[in-house]
Hints:
alpha/beta; eight-stranded mixed beta sheet; 13 helices; about 15% strand; binds magnesium ion
Amino acid sequence: MSFLSKLKEAFSKKEDKAQYLAGFQKTNETFGDALSKMEYEFHGCDDDFLEQLTIILLESDVGIETADLICDKLKEKCKDFPSLTFHWTMNFLMEIMKEIYDEYEDVPVQWNENGTTVFFLEGVNGSGKTTTAAKLAYMWVNQGKKVAFVAADTFRAGAIDQLAEWGERLNCPVIKGRENGDPSAAIVDGCRFAKEKGADILICDTAGRLQNKVNLMKELEKMNRVSAREIEGAPHNTWLVLDATTGQNGLSQAEVFAQSTKLTGIILTKMDGTAKGGIVLAIKHKLHVPVLYLGLGEHPDDLRPFDLDSYLYSISEGLNHNG
Ligand SMILES: Nc1nc2c(ncn2[C@@H]2O[C@H](COP(=O)(O)OP(=O)(O)O)[C@@H](O)[C@H]2O)c(=O)[nH]1
Ligand SMILES: [Mg+2]
């Protein structure tokens, strides 16, 4: 059975099929559909083909470094099979993409066995942190967990109220920072509240100021330090919330955050929009940080766990997966 048919079979057993296909529709147009059109002019894995492939990869937001790596690996793999068909070349291509994602092992979500598990959500303004905080809370509350929020975005007017509203709707307490106050102070209050009330999960919605890297680093470092003082091992998870529609720009943002703090996961938001999903591969290859969840809308239940097989199938749906 070929890799593509295995992918199709694995995908057919998944629960989130419709959401994946809808979320990656745009990527499938720029990737799967575009690739399938190359079949008619295919004369083997030659320079012309690799050049076209590079363009398609770049248009899908894979980024130049990862695109070059994919092409090099494909060239190497096809070398021993001079009369390889288009279908098998596509099989190799998708296999290589999986290999690149799998090269660095995913870090699982870290749970604090002895008390509250602390999550930091980081990212630039508008990336979807507050909405993601609500989505995560919705998911965990439905799993029977006690969730509390810290509104630590003290810099953006209205940011605290926005989270407070979600807290009311989801019935989760919100520890509010003071507008223009020190976000770390809010984190300390939140940790103490969580300990006292026996919360299972504390989601800290932080500010995302990227204008000044030194300040960002200092602020993140302080938030890390104060939370660790309150709750052992905190923050147990630091997740970067990234607007997938910002493409390669999002990748450079992610690089700055990764230099400033130890990221343990990425949440890609706005995958329901015009986003091109190649960014998933670029992030994993360059930052070695796994994509954990996808945001597929503005409602609390519009969050889906990331699944590699579903991703690979959805972006390449335009290809023939049979045989
Ligand atoms: N379509 C769509 N919109 C989203 C998603 N996540 C967030 N948004 C919207 O993006 C905007 C900014 O989100 P917000 O959570 O306030 O960003 P923050 O500044 O990082 O806290 C809001 O209008 C959200 O409704 C998503 O997955 N899909
Ligand atoms: Mg916010």
